[in-house]
Design brief:
single chain; two-stranded antiparallel sheet; 3 helices; about 35% helix; about 25% strand
Length: about 180
């Protein structure tokens, strides 16, 4: 094995040779490569974390609206919410659902089934963190407007297709 080159170590005025073979540590290039690998890994894991938080939030909204839809169907069926007085069609807007803060609902369609007391109902739910009791369709449309949408915002049907507004159909048999 060839002898390692000798370096000079100068302290004050005396210089003495130092062998490189007994020095421990990393070179600057090794530290830069290790740092780059760490940063790439950290950014990847952080991106996964942010994606997980986003999907968890979306799942929470979907779950809350599904539970609220089930409760509204039960309340309509039991007569707690009178079905005759519910707004049919697009109507003036969404009403706040009392048991879920920030969740608004709208009875989109309500029609009687032939030869039956049952009614076919379609409900829409949207999550808006605002304190009002009722929200107009215009407010919902403007709230979720994106670049390229018309000035008044996307239609309610577009928001349903995008998954922003959840739609739940049901058939209600009164007791």
């Amino acid at each position: 094995m060839p002898a390692s080159p000798r370096l000079l170590s100068c302290k004050s005025a005396a210089c003495r040779p130092v062998s490189r073979g007994n020095q421990a540590g990393f070179t600057l290039v090794e530290m830069l490569v290790a740092s780059a690998i760490f940063i790439v890994g950290f950014v990847s894991v952080y991106g996964l974390f942010l994606t997980g938080v986003k999907y968890r939030s979306e799942a929470d909204i979907i779950t809350r609206s599904a539970v609220a839809a089930s409760n509204v169907v039960n309340e309509l069926r039991l007569g707690i919410l009178p079905l005759e007085e519910t707004e049919v069609g697009d109507g003036p807007g969404f009403r706040r659902y009392r048991d879920q803060p920030g969740l608004f609902y709208q009875i989109h369609q309500s029609q009687g089934l032939p030869n039956s007391a049952a009614r076919k109902v379609s409900m829409r739910f949207v999550h808006l963190p605002i304190p009002q009791f009722e929200v107009s369709n215009d407010v919902v449309q403007r709230r979720f407007r994106r670049a390229g949408d018309p000035t008044e915002g996307p239609s309610i049907e577009d928001l349903v297709q995008r998954g922003i507004i959840m739609s739940y159909p049901a058939v209600i048999y009164p007791r």
